[in-house]
Design goal:
447 residues; 6-stranded parallel β-sheet; Rossmann fold; 13 strands; 18 helices; single chain; globular; alpha/beta
């Protein structure tokens, strides 16, 4: 048991906050990327012009490690060694999680093509095909994340993407994280590069001698990664905005504050740039949670205590006390959190009140831990309020949709008549000619 931890937990009372104070609670670590954008620009340019040499040099300067320029990509021997370094229990857990994630995304995968008769003789539909390539970004700085490998690669494999790679920062000594390689292979991916941060985003955007360029990058990352994605959005598809971790635990008066406190710490321990709030109208629940947290900190290591206490004691974390559940739900919707967990005897009664969240987990038996690792739905989620317009990572992110249409001879005249009227109104003469008597004469002659 660790020594008692003396840390303050912020208590934000919405009734006493003005508009500026409320807006401050809604801010995330990457809300202002200006300082990162300025620092990332020369990194991107170096990778674009120097290729592998920049990867090696920047690994030394940024990550403080030396990597072999001939072995930026993992070799078969690296995968083999990884399976000897990872405990069998961990491998079994990865296999279990991959199977659940695969099952979920297989159910989510759309049918390859559908068509419906919109009008007599007029058919329209969609065809779905996988995108040609993708890079899956897996962070490393504050830990190792085989879970992110699974969440990003499995739906890509299910979608049928032919070229999939993982990019991940080199660890101590420049080595790959063993569990990352294990998870990649179990998921069905054997191309893994030891390159991270803005360097990785630039490498997969432009390509180098060792790194094959991709058309899209997915996965969460630091503000450095988010800034690089923003600058390179015109070069490659940067996918769902996924920055530092964030969560809200929404608890009504029937919730157990001690359990809510357990869940509040989950995303808070990712790093000091995370965001984590317990939102409740109940002072009893709030006090119980605040009282329980020091005891939980005694069962955590110093680094995770430091991360989570920084979050919970600052402007991006702690307890938000609301006048009632209406105000609590309104705050959640304004915040649009990455993760939302609803606590209470009847959590489903609040589900319909929530419009904006990357994921919604319900009840005391569904902690965010399960969603992050083994439940099945994707845990790569939009952050920084983007849950208002973006969805979780899914098979759809690895596929592209093409509209399909077919009109029979019997169905053509009615559609042509109305299309000609609209084309004429908008002043498009070629459009109108293509559905005029000119076409009808040609069609008669072709019979």
């Amino acid at each position: 048991m660790n020594a008692p931890v003396e840390k303050n937990i912020a208590l934000h009372d919405l009734t006493g906050l003005d508009a500026a104070g409320r807006a401050q609670l809604l801010r995330r670590a990457e809300s202002d990327l200006t300082p990162f954008l300025d620092k990332v620009k020369p990194i991107i340019e170096a990778v674009r012009t120097e290729g592998d040499a920049a990867i090696v040099r920047l690994a030394r300067e940024i990550d403080r490690v030396d990597i072999d320029p001939a072995h930026i990509a993992a070799r078969p021997a690296d995968f083999d060694r990884a399976f000897t370094q990872v405990d069998r229990e961990v491998i079994a857990a990865i296999e279990y999680a991959v199977e659940n994630i695969r099952r979920f995304h297989e159910e989510q995968k759309p049918e390859s093509m559908w068509m419906k008769e919109i009008r007599p003789g007029a058919f329209a539909g969609d065809r779905w095909l996988p995108i040609p390539s993708v890079a899956c970004y897996v962070p490393r700085g504050k830990g190792a994340f085989p879970s992110v490998v699974m969440m990003t690669t499995v739906p890509a494999v299910v979608a049928g993407v032919p070229e999939i790679c993982v990019v991940t920062p080199p660890g101590p000594g420049g080595d790959f994280d063993a569990a990352t390689l294990v998870a990649a292979q179990i998921a069905g991916v054997r191309t893994v590069y030891r390159v991270g941060g803005a360097v990785a985003v630039a490498a997969v955007a432009y390509g180098t001698k060792s790194v094959t360029p991709r058309v899209k990058i997915v996965g969460p990352g630091s503000p450095w990664v988010v800034a690089a994605k923003r600058l390179l959005a015109g070069v490659l598809d940067t996918g769902t905005p996924a920055g530092p971790s964030e969560s809200i635990v929404l608890a009504d008066e029937t919730a157990d504050g001690r359990i809510a406190a357990l869940d509040l710490l989950i995303e808070a321990e990712h790093g000091p740039d995370s965001s984590a709030f317990l939102v409740t109208p109940s002072r009893t629940v709030a006090d119980a949670a605040i009282a329980a947290i020091p005891g939980y900190w005694q069962r955590m290591g110093a680094q995770r205590v430091e991360f989570s206490s920084t979050v919970l004691g600052g402007p991006r974390g702690g307890v938000v006390l609301t006048p009632d559940m209406d105000a609590a739900c309104a705050f959640v919707n304004d915040y649009a959190p990455e993760h939302l967990l609803i606590h209470g005897d009847e959590p489903f009664q609040w589900l319909g009140r929530i419009q904006h969240a990357g994921e919604i987990l319900l009840g005391r038996h569904t902690p965010i831990t399960l969603g992050n690792f083994v439940l099945g739905p994707n845990a790569v989620l939009p952050t920084s309020g983007w849950a208002k317009t973006f969805s979780p990572l899914s098979t759809f992110d690895y596929m592209k949709r093409t509209g399909i249409g077919y009109v029979t001879g019997a169905g053509y005249p009615e559609l042509a008549k109305h299309a000609r009227v609209l084309a004429t109104y908008e002043g498009f003469e070629a459009h109108a000619n293509a559905v005029s008597e000119l076409r009808e004469a040609l069609l008669r002659g072709a019979r």
